[in-house]
Sequence to fold (231 residues):
Amino acid sequence: MLNLIAASAFFVLIHLLISGTRVRDRLVGRIGEGPYMGLFAALSIVGLVWLALAFGQARGGPENEPYWSVGPASRNIQMLIQLLAVTLIVIGLSTRNPTSVRQEGVIERPDAAQGILRVTRHPFLWGVALWALGHLVVNGDRASLILFGSLLILAVSGTASIDAKRKRALGPAWDSFAARTSNVPFAAIVEGRQRLIWSEIGVWRILAAVAVYLVLVLAHPHFTGVPALAG
Fold:
């Protein structure tokens, strides 16, 4: 279990204490954007592999105590949460977004705040947060709490971290973009700063998300050993 705690701490801290802070700015100033991105990508891959191996080890260990269990109804509700999560992730990854890696230039476009960005400027991270939250609900063991809890904290705090990083780098252009969008999903729409236009999101993105979701459901028992569907 200590190995999983260490892996989770490593993965979370390299993002929160390096990627989203002025430490990143200083590193880029010293070694350049390209080398920094390569180094950080390598550290992230190492962290993910370490997390996966440590979770597999801890999951079958004697210290992995269950704190709660859920029934079929809760697991089926979890499937709906995962559908929404995957939809946000797929749409987020396929939408040009000034909060994404090396897409800062999008902020200069007049249509920068459109599509899913009218809902939230961090669709990918909120999708990951929902994914982690859903898995927390149906996995009440200690190892799952550490893994999915860490990823949930990272996803939610990462939205604020990226906002601060982009504000430092983009200045007034970011302020204008942020004024037209929101971090919290639907907040800008509720406040009257935005309106939802479904046609901008694209039917193809939604269909692609459903396809990815179905593949993940079918593949789930093969790469995790646990069926996604109750029963």
Notes: The chain is about 70% helix and 0% strand. The mean pLDDT is 91. Residues 66-231 form one domain.
